[in-house]
Amino acid sequence: HGKPRIFSLIAPLLYVHATAGNVQDTRIQFERVSEEFGMVPNTVCWNIMLTAYMNNDDLDGVVSTFDEMLAKGAKPDSYSFGILMGMCANRGDIDNVLRLLVLLKENRVQITSALLDPIVEAYCNNQLFDLAEQVAEACLDLDVKGSLVRMWNVLLWNHAFRIDLEAVSRIRSRMEAVGIQPD
Known about the structure:
The protein is mainly α. Helix content is 70%, strand content 0%. It has helices spanning 7-18, 23-35, 43-55, 59-71, 78-90, 94-106, 113-125, 129-140, 149-161, 165-178. α3 (43-55) runs parallel beside α5 (78-90), α6 (94-106) runs antiparallel to α7 and α8 packs antiparallel against α9 (149-161). The longest helix is centred in the C-terminal third of the chain and has 14 residues, at 165-178. The N and C termini lie far apart (45 Å).
C-alpha cells in the first residue's frame, strides 16, 4: 500500500511496542516516521515514545525524550505532561510534580483533573496526608475538566493501607457530601 501518509496509520506501529515497554523497537518505528516516511513526528508519536519509557519504568528515558521533544519543536499536551507527572508522583517527587505544573501552565496546556491527581499522590507517597487532603479540597473549587474521583480514591487508599479507619470514614463522608461517587 506504500508509505503511510497519515499519523493514524503510523501510531499503531509505535504503540504496539510501547505498550510492552519495548523502548528499542518503539524507537526504531519512531525513527522510521521521519527517515522512511518523510513525516515530522507529531505530539501523538512523541507521547507514544514517552509511553514506551514509562512502561519500561525508565524516568530518565522519559525526561530525555521529553527534552528531545521540546528541542525538536513538538508541542507537549496534557498526556505528555501527565506521563512525567505520574512518574514523579509515583516516586514521591513533589518538587518536580509542582515544577511540571508550572511548565504546563507556561506551555498553555489545559489543566485537567488528571494533571492534579499526581499532586495528591506525591504528597501521599511522602506521608503528607494533610497537604494531600488540602489539595483535594482546593480542587473542589476549580473548574477543571475530568473527574476528581481518582484523587479522592488515592486519599482513601492511602488511609486504608495505613488502617486509619477514622480518616477513611472522614474522606468517604466528605466525598459523599460534595457528590463524588466512588468507583
